[in-house]
Each structure stands twice: as C-alpha cells, then as structure tokens.
C-alpha cells in the first residue's frame, strides 16, 4: 500500500483526499518509481481544487513533476536504483502523477536525475523553473541580449516568475519584476530584480501601442497584462508567453507585431521534446546555486498538499513548495 493525493468525481462533484492505495491499482507503465519528492505547480493547484479543467479522467493522482528512484524497470534505459526526474507529458492530468509515494510511468517520459541537483533541489525547480529556463532560452534564441535594455517578468513572486528573475539576473540582464505583492519587493530584489512595479500598471485594458520600454519579457499572466506588455515592448523585442494567471484571453491587436516587429514566443513545457528538456536542465545546473534554490523554496509533506494548493491559487504562496514523501 502507498499514500497518494486522490481526486475523484461523483455526480459532477469533485472530492480530494489523502488515500491509501494498493500498488496493483497503479496505471500501466514500464518503470515503477519510489517517489522521493514532488511539488505544487499552478496546474496541480487547479487540478486539486477543481478550479480548472486539468484532470482529464477520474480517479486521478495529481502531480505533474516527480523525482524518485526506479524500483522495477522493463526498459533498457533505466535500472532499479537509478534516480529519475519527470516533468509533464500529461502526468497528473491523464496518467497518475507525482503526489504519491509510488508511480508507474512510461520510460520515454523520464530523464536521468540531473547530476547538479538532488531530488529535493530538482523539485524546488520543477516545471516552474524548467519553464522559466525554456522562456529565457527563447529570448536568447531570438537575439535578446543584456545590452538591449530592461526585461520585464510578470507574476514575479510565483514559481515561474521567481526563477525567471533569478536566471535572467545571473545571465546579466536588467530585470524589472511586476507583482501584486509589494511586500515581496525585498525578496524580488534579492533574487536579482533591479526594479519592482505594481502589477496594476499592466492589468487593465490599454492602448494597442504604448511607449517602448522592454527589450523582452517573460509573462506568466496572460490577458490584459500580456497585451500591455506587447504594446510596450521595444522595436524587435521578444515576449515569451508561458501562463494565464490573470486569464486565458489575449485582447491585443496586430500593431506590436506589424509596426514594431515584436515576436510573441509561445512556451510549452508539457510536450517538449527530450533533447530540449535535457538542454534546459543542463543550463539550470550551470546557472542555479543551492543558496538560490533555498531562497525560493519551502518544504511541506503530502498531508499539507491539499491546503497549500488552495493557498497557491489564492496568491499566498511565494516562490515554490517541495512535497517530501518520507
Ligand atoms: P504561481 O501561482 O506560483 O505564480 C503565478 C503568479 O501570477 C502569482 O504568484 C502572482 O504573482 C501572479 N498572479 C496571480 N493571479 C494573478 C492575477 N489575477 N493577475 C495578475 N497576476 C496574477 O504559478 P506558476 O509560477 O507555477 O505558474 C504561472 C503560470 O504559468 C500559470 O498560469 C501556469 O499555468 C503557467 N505555466 C505554464 C507552463 C507551460 O508549459 N507553458 C509551465 C508552468 C506554468 P504576484 O503575486 O507576484 O503578482
């Protein structure tokens, strides 16, 4: 038997609880993993609270990230005792996920644990940090360099935002953090932001074009915020779009694209090909120090995961949480 967060739905109503499950109930897969750590991402919080259509079938064990040790393997790529990492691939949405002591997975979804990090540290980074790295790489690939000016990070106190600031600052970019939590300004400055602005400056409907300010941006908020960021991006700049914390809509016009040559780069972490994942984790290993991971993260145990998911959607969680199984 093992413990898991289990989401179920009866008569249209979702229930979620910490449950003891039999290993025989685990889904199909060629690798079984003893999960050491998982984490709570925005998507996990939507799944647990039922506030977003993340879970595609019930019952479901949520958790889009996990790190653990292989117990059984029918794959030539992994053997018992190997430490592995998983981010995304629909795990925690369509296939039972990481908020459990055990998981059975498709070996094609796993990568070896990056040597730079312990399982705890890799979950401190999780999909949020790996997505921030993909977003930074998207800016680099499109020629955004530190000498071009300020880079805006929205949703700054969240998981993606915290890592985006840390990584950009480490690479020498001048970072401006947009947050709804002014009390977190010292934290954002410690991560590497030069300047902190109030997110209300960006969250209301704006003009199709505004004064050019940002050489680039990493946005995890969407909606009017993203529209305003695009409108104030400098000629030739790039905005990496990763999230929808304000909303799924994008009430913009073609003006930033056809008059200023702005690029909107879409970032998806879930179905990202393996080679991109390995490269993103290699870069994370190069750029992040244990001290930075500690500043961003706090540990919880599995029994706290449901309550903390509510806090995360209420905007009360700063940075990241790691869920320790043992
Ligand atoms: P968090 O909850 O940790 O961070 C989101 C942040 O957004 C909050 O901390 C808050 O920052 C800000 N925010 C929250 N509500 C609003 C609002 N109504 N208006 C404006 N800002 C708001 O989530 P994550 O960092 O884990 O994820 C951020 C987004 O990125 C989510 O939408 C998530 O689904 C998406 N995502 C996408 C991925 C992909 O593959 N594309 C992968 C990972 C995440 P503050 O308090 O500082 O203002």
From TrEMBL:
Q: Which SMART domains match?
A: PKS_ER
The protein's matches in Gene3D superfamilies, at most eight in alphabetical order, are given as: Medium-chain alcohol dehydrogenases, catalytic domain (3.90.180.10), NAD(P)-binding Rossmann-like Domain (3.40.50.720)
Signal peptide per UniProt: none
The record's section on SUPFAM superfamilies has:
GroES-like (SSF50129), NAD(P)-binding Rossmann-fold domains (SSF51735)
Pfam families, sorted: ADH_N, ADH_zinc_N
Per its UniProt record, what InterPro entries does this chain match? Acrylyl-CoA_reductase_AcuI, ADH-like_C, ADH-like_N, ER, GroES-like_sf, NAD(P)-bd_dom_sf, Zn-ADH-like_protein
Residue ranges constituting the Enoyl reductase (ER) domain according to the UniProt record: 12-323
Say which domain of life the source belongs to: Bacteria
The protein's name: Oxidoreductase
Species this chain originates from: Vreelandella neptunia
């Amino acid at each position: 038997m093992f413990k898991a967060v289990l989401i179920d739905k009866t008569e249209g109503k979702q229930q979620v609880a910490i449950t003891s499950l039999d290993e025989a109930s685990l889904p199909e897969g060629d690798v079984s993993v003893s999960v050491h750590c998982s984490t709570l991402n925005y998507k996990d919080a939507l799944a647990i609270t039922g506030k977003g259509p993340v879970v595609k079938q019930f019952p479901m064990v949520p958790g889009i990230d996990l790190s653990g040790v292989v117990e059984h393997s029918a794959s030539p790529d992994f053997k018992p005792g190997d430490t592995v990492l998983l981010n995304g691939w629909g795990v925690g949405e369509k296939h039972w996920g990481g908020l459990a002591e055990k998981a059975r997975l498709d070996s094609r979804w796993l990568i070896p644990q990056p040597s730079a990090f312990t399982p705890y540290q890799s979950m401190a980074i999780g999909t949020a940090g790996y997505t921030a790295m993909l977003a930074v790489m998207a800016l680099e690939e499109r020629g955004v360099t530190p000498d071009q000016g300020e880079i805006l990070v929205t949703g700054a106190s969240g998981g993606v935002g915290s890592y985006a600031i840390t990584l950009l600052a480490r690479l020498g970019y001048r970072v401006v953090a947009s947050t709804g939590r002014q009390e977190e300004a010292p934290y954002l400055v410690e991560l590497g932001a030069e300047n902190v602005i109030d997110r209300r400056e960006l969250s209301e409907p704006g003009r199709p074009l505004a004064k050019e300010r940002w050489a680039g941006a990493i946005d995890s908020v969407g909606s009017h915020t993203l529209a305003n960021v695009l409108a104030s991006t400098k000629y030739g700049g790039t905005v990496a779009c990763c999230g929808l914390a304000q909303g799924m809509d994008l009430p913009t016009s073609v003006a930033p694209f056809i008059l200023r040559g702005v690029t909107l780069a879409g970032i998806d972490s879930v179905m990202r090909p393996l080679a991109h994942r390995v490269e993103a984790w290699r870069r994370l290993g190069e750029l992040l120090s244990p001290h930075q991971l500690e500043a961003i993260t706090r540990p919880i145990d599995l029994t706290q995961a449901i309550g903390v998911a509510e806090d995360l959607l209420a905007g009360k969680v700063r940075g990241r949480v790691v869920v320790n199984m043992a």
